[in-house]
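Researcher: I'd like a structural prediction for the single chain below. Treat it as a standalone chain; there are no partners to consider.
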Amino acid sequence: MVWCILLKNVAVIYPNKYKAGITCLAVHILANHLSKYYNTKVFFLENYQQIKNFDTIFITLQYELDYFNAINIVKFLKMQNPNAKFIAGGPCVMENPYPLMDFFDAFIVGEIEGSNVMYEVVEGNYDVEGVLTKYKDKVKRIYPKKLGIEDYPIYQPIPENSAYGKTFLLELGRGCPRRCKFCLARAIYYPPRIRKLDDLIYLAEEGIKTNKVNKVSLIHPSVGDYKYILDLVEYLVNKGVQVSLSSIRVDTLTEEFLKLTKPKTLTIAPEAGSEKLREIIKKDISEEDIFRGVELAKKYNISKIKLYYMVGLPNEEWEDIEAIINQVKEIKRHIKMVEVSVNPFIPKPHTDFELESFDLESKKKIKYIEKELKKYGVRVEYENFNSMLCQAILARGDTSLSYYLDRANNYSKFLSLIKKDNLLEKYLNPKELVWKNIILK
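Model: Treating it as a single chain, here is the predicted structure.
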């Protein structure tokens, strides 16, 4: 007698374009984990319409603006997969899933490594730790106390035309030891956990061999804070492997690091132009740190510096806006190519600034910075203001937002409906803090 086991079909969807989604480590972690139990396939904005007769559909939500795509995807796929369960997870779910409560059967709150939560959900059991439904009042985040190698995705089919190029994604750790008051990652991934150097070397070797790549992208909120970063980078460089970074704080930058990595661009994120405001937001980067980084860039022939700032921060004064301009002008005196990114501060749930207001004057401040820096040949980049306003609403919204999300295909339409009903103030300064039902610690 021949026994035939029919495995369930499970889909993992990144609700945006393939080029960005294929370099999202969460996509690879989910696919690797689920493939142990089920027939698992990964889809993106370009090909999700192919999903038919699947049992469970997981959507990872990395950014609030992906909600519109995610809802469109769910609506379409429910017709093609009438019996499927729709589950959401990711940082936005840990932040605040309530605006999306009407569109999903359940939400996974936390990190799945070392747990069987995915299996339980596919099998229809939502009464487990880390799973939120509309029938539960509160949920406690799940997370692995330690990060090992068991659940790490060695196979990562990342092509040359991806956002990072053909590479292997190597996560040094999760969570951040710093104290920035505005940072969501610090809040939702606490406590910081790092991987052992030996584990990272093993994962890198296996990843390079399995995926036939000669580039490794190091992922961590603050790469330079990893205790053995020089040992790891030196090991990879000596093997002829190119190393790229997700981010590095300028106060952790060293000559040894630059000698090894030979970057063409140095990214610095002062966030605020003045020392006073950086102290308020606890960025913990001094003027001395910034210009020491600039001097190192000059010394090691780095041709471009990219600077990241926010406006509309708590306790901001006009002199802080001028401080951004003056700081950039001074850096431009030393480095020929300087690019600046300025965007409004968005108060996020679970952070120290979760109750702060979104500054509706941010757009004017950004335009002023752009105008002044244009005189010195500095290009200023910024996101569409309405898209940032939309993020601010969705980040701290409640279940009543589902009405507007259901009727809007994009953030412009969404905002128009909110404004038409005179609800902008209500959603920008919420009284009911629904995200307090998500227990992170």
